[in-house]
Each structure stands twice: as C-alpha cells, then as structure tokens.
Amino acid sequence: MCNGIAIIIYEKDGELKSLCTGISSHDELCKLDDDLRYGKIEPWRFELIYPCNLTYDRGHNKPLTLGVCNEQPEQKIWDIAIQTAIPYFMKHTKEQLQNANLKGADLEGANLKGANLEGAHLEGAHLIGTILEKK
Q: With contact defined as beta carbons under 8 Å apart, do 129 and 113 qualify?
C-alpha cells in the first residue's frame, strides 16, 4: 500500500505514538524508531489518500491465520491517525490522485490536466468544464 502519505500509530512504553512526515513510505517512517525498524513493535499502518481519505492496512504480508488481516483498530487508534493526518489533508498534488475517492466531488471547472486518476472513484462527481487532458 501507499500511494499517498504514510501514517504509523504504535504503542511504546505504555503510550500510543504516531509518525508522519509527509512521505509515502511506511518503511521509511519505521526507520525513525529503532523498535519499529527492527520489528519489535507492529504498528498500525494508515495511508492518507487525496483529498482526505484515510485507509488502514496492518499485517498485509502476514497469513490470515495470524489474525491481523481484516482487523479494524479501536476508535482511539483511528482518532490518533486522523489527528496526525490533519496537517496533510488537501496537500497532495494532482499527480497523486490515483485511487482517490472523489465520489460526488464538485470538480466543476477544475484543471486536472496531467492528473493521475488511475483507479479513482468518480461516481456522481460534477465534472462540467473540468480539464482532464493528459500531459
């Protein structure tokens, strides 16, 4: 995963912590804490996808028998992830619109020339006058 901005929430020394620097790599974020880097802590991995969709992915490389796939974090984990993501909402470029949920978005007159809309969900979006040319 990670077509947007990576966010990691993890528990260390009895408290929940978060990491986000605006980069798109969870692996790079993990390098900021030795316990994460060396796999001593399994973080919750979130991704901020333009314009402000927060998705969750944990244990994507683990077999289903470990019980971490398809789980949902507690509300307090989501709350921290959202608070961590707020400074980055709406700061993507139009080249980062892949897989964006733009359902019902008002894009009337928007200049999306050169935008990467691969996998974007545009159902019900208002596109009158929107420029959708490739570069």
A: no
Which 3 state secondary structure label does DSSP give 131?
Answer: strand
Q: Is 114:134 a contact under the CB 8 Å cutoff?
A: yes
Give me the tens of pLDDT residue by residue for the chain, a chain 135 residues long: 456 788 999 999 999 999 998 888 889 999 999 999 999 999 999 888 765 667 776 554 443 333 345 567 888 998 999 889 887 776 666 666 777 777 777 788 888 888 888 888 888 888 888 888 876
The torsion angles phi and psi of 47, rounded to 5 degrees, stand at -140, 130
* Cut 0.70: pTM above it: no
Domain positions in the chain: 5-88, 93-135
Cis preceding linkage at 63, omega within 30: no
- Edge to edge, the sheet with strand 44-49 lists 15-19, 5-12, 44-49, 53-57
